[in-house]
Amino acid sequence: MLKANCILFLLLLSCGSLKAQNEAIPGNKQIIVSVSQDPVKGVINLFDKYPVVALSEAHRLQEEHDFIDRLLKDTAFPEKVNDIVIEWGNSRYQKVLDKYIVGENIDISDLRKVWRDTGFSSWTWDAPVYEKLFKTVREINEKLPAAKKIRVIAGDVPVDWTKSAKQINEIQEKYPRDKHFADIIEKEVFSKNRKALIVMGMGHLLRYKWDPYSGSDKPQTTIDFLCEKHSKEIFVIMVHAFLRRNAELESKLSTVPAPSFIMLKDTWLGELPTDSVMSKRYERGFANGKVAFAVVNPYVGLSLQDIADGYLYLGDMNELTESQPSPELYSSDLKYVGELQRRFKMMTGQNFPVEHYLKKRDQISFIQNLQHFRRLQNKNTRHRTIDSPQGLCEFQHKARHLPQSFVQVSQTR
After folding, report:
1. What are the tens digits of pLDDT across the range 280-293?
2. 3-class DSSP state for residue 384?
């Protein structure tokens, strides 16, 4: 189905030279700040126990990609890790990516198809941090023997954008994204007894996510699929990046160095209810202009340690920045802009916001831009209408874990 998807063991390993200290926190729980260990080493050491470490990626978060860059460049990484499985790669072009990563000369127009032709909002991957990962791994591989070279695996659905909307629909129905991600990891990592770092959006990697618009009561994220067979073999890390800044949480984390890697189990952070940070507003519209919406926590009734094992803290959300593509990428390539407009219209029924990308900014606030595009995503999904009172009942049924007062109808679009 073609959809508008334009939408912390008690040891804390911290960066820097700090005096050991115990930090008193609510509920008599403590986190012990380590003196010398680096969070990069903390993540790498996880591979001594787990064949797969899944790092949730906040799309375009510069500070997270700076951390990933440090992680990959650590000399211990290729000694313990074979593969990196990414969201921003169309599996249709895996052979092209394989050749580039080991040093072969690939025409840039062919290489760009890897991230520009994904089935998700491909313009997201125009931010320079995504191409940079490919370049970084290629540079690392130049210094490694063949048996140690890192492979980057493109995890996304093999969409062919030269096909019609109907044909693309059929491909996406045949290959649901999370199931496809899981199948790729099973085939390329687990079945070959390899070790992999998975880097994908939080919604794909946190456990037990409930989708209010899915017809299934069973969680269907990438990790949920994989945990059917490999629940003891995967370590999930969530990143400190949410749709809204929680002032109380930020205050409690204010003395924690950035970046820091925190183990969640049996800590005050791990026991934090998801309601405070994971709630989202979902919208669907009526043909008559009314809009049904629900404030939904996809992880209702759970704590952070239920949905993840570790936590990557990168600093106060107000200080986090977003990687942005240069406006010249679009202004100098009108053919590409035209193709983005065609795809955006096909996926959402709306016009691609090219004006937003043509604006040059010195520094981009991650949270402000995230909220902007969340509003845009809700606007673009309202055309998928709930056409009848029965449709609204269906909407309310799918939001059944919420108090009924959370399910409302707005008079305006």
Report:
1. 776 665 556 666 66
2. coil
Altogether, the residues listed in the chain come to a count of 413
Residue-wise pLDDT tens digits, 86-142: 999 999 999 999 999 999 999 999 999 999 999 877 789 999 999 999 999 999 999
Torsion angle of alpha carbons 297, 302, 306, 307, nearest 10°? 0
Give the pair of three-digit tokens for residue 67: 């951390």
Q: Edge-to-edge, what's the strand order for the sheet holding 291-296?
A: 280-285, 291-296, 407-410
Alpha helical stretches, state H, 269-318: 275-278, 304-307
Please, what is the end-to-end C-alpha distance for the chain in angstroms?
24
DSSP tally for the chain: helices H, then strands E = 19, 13
Query: Per residue in 212-250, pLDDT tens?
Result: 555 566 668 999 999 999 999 999 999 999 878 888 999
Alpha helices (H) in 103-156, listed in sequence order: 108-111, 113-116, 128-141
3-state secondary structure at position 215: coil
33, 34, 261 from 17: Cα distances, Å? 11, 9, 15
How far is C-alpha 250 from the geometric centre of its chain's CA atoms? 21
- Was domain 11-278+300-319 assigned CATH 3.40.605.10? no
> In the prediction, which pLDDT does 367 show?
74
From residue 369, alpha-carbon distances to 90, 322, 323, 328, 331 in Å are 25, 8, 11, 19, 21
User: What residue type is assigned to position 108 of the chain?
Assistant: I
Cis bond before residue 259 (omega within 30° of 0):
yes
Among residues 216, 220, 210, 215, the alpha carbon closest in space to that of 179 is found at 220
Closest CA to 174 of 214, 225, 122, 183: 183
CA–CA distance, 392 with 292 (Å, rounded to integer)? 7
Nearest-angstrom CA–CA distance, 367 and 317:
7
Question: What residues contact residue 10 under an 8 Å CB cut-off, 6+ apart?
Answer: 30, 31, 32, 263, 266, 267
Q: How far is CA 266 from CA 33, 97, 239, 303, 329, in A?
A: 15, 41, 18, 11, 47
